[in-house]
Design brief:
single chain, mainly alpha, 14 helices, globular, disordered C terminus
Length: 320
């Protein structure tokens, strides 16, 4: 277990380091752009897309592990039952999140998907405070209050309970909690390999059912005499693209508190909302624009807090 203990010592990275903040921002920026890509994957349904995301993502991780020679670390993680169990749980939670998200995008509910990611930071911050006993800075408290105001306002204006949004928010909030608990013990690349490997067998059983019943997207393309090679490449690309932000997220989890991670998540739904309205031409009521504007104010306070945290870490004075 020497290397796992080594990662625990490495984990002295304090909240707010520049690398952790950059990783977190990069992950959520990429997630904000994902609707553009996943809208291209039809006629594959949401769960079929998840099969490809997991399989090709797992293979990408294993290839990368071979390149950087991390097989020893992978074996040590597998030998640690506590860490292995949490990573397997994380794998199933992220599959639930992926499936709900892709279903929302493909069924014309990208706005609901964005709303789910607006709600998610509040759940993540709450888990950080309640479960991990984290404390929030004054700026973070202001950002949380503004974020809660925006979400409550949008929920009231919708007039109904947004099940898709709540499912996405809860699944990723729990995923964030599980990842935070093992972030200091596992290399991000190794962790992703274990997560995807845990869910691939069950997903392949489902895909075998689709093949046996001629229900895959490739059967649909063949029936309509459409080329399938481009579709296959896009599905492979979905797996590769899935891994990049998740590895960035894992790196951010090692240096940021769960509360800060939760607040950074506001970056993703803003991008998704803009894509939903201006690219997919989904309906965006005035009430949601108002809610989005409130979230922007929350991001201003979060940005100030992030700059201050990085400056403190580097030992630089903070200007007024």
């Amino acid at each position: 277990m020497a290397n796992i203990q080594g990662y625990q010592h490495e984990a002295g990275t304090r909240v707010g380091t520049a690398q952790a903040w950059a990783s977190g921002v990069g992950a959520y920026f990429l997630w904000g752009l994902f609707p553009l890509y996943f809208s291209l994957l039809e006629p594959a349904n949401s769960l079929e897309v998840i099969v490809h995301r997991a399989v090709w993502g797992m293979l990408s991780c294993l290839i990368a592990i071979s390149i950087v020679r991390q097989w020893k670390n992978l074996r040590e993680v597998i030998a640690n039952r506590a860490v292995l169990g949490r990573l397997c749980l994380a794998g199933f939670l992220i599959v639930i999140n992926w499936t709900t998200y892709i279903f929302a995008v493909q069924s014309g509910h990208t706005v609901d998907a964005a709303l789910g990611y607006f709600i998610n930071p509040l759940i993540t911050v709450a888990l950080g405070v309640v479960v991990l006993k984290e404390t929030l800075t004054r700026m973070q408290k202001i950002a949380v209050a503004l974020g809660a105001t925006a979400v409550i306002y949008m929920l009231i204006s919708m007039g109904s309970l947004p099940w898709l949004a709540l499912g996405m928010a809860t699944s990723f909030g729990l995923y964030s909690l599980v990842k935070k608990r093992v972030a200091h013990q596992v290399n991000p690349l190794v962790g992703m390999a274990v997560e995807t490997s845990a869910v691939v067998p069950l997903l392949l059983i489902y895909y075998g059912y689709l093949v046996a019943n001629n229900q895959t997207s490739f059967h649909t393309l063949s029936n309509n005499n459409l080329p399938w090679m481009g579709h296959l490449l896009l599905l492979i690309g979905a797996g590769v693209l899935t891994i990049i932000p998740l590895i960035l997220f894992a790196q951010a989890s090692r240096g940021l508190s769960l509360g800060v991670i939760g607040l950074l998540q506001y970056l993703s739904p803003i991008g998704q909302l803009l894509i939903a309205v201006f690219v997919f031409h989904e309906t965006m009521p005035t009430e949601r624009w108002i809610g989005t504007a409130i979230v922007w104010f929350a991001l201003v306070f979060l940005s100030i807090d992030g700059v201050r945290a990085v400056s403190r870490y580097r030992g630089k004075p903070i200007s007024a």
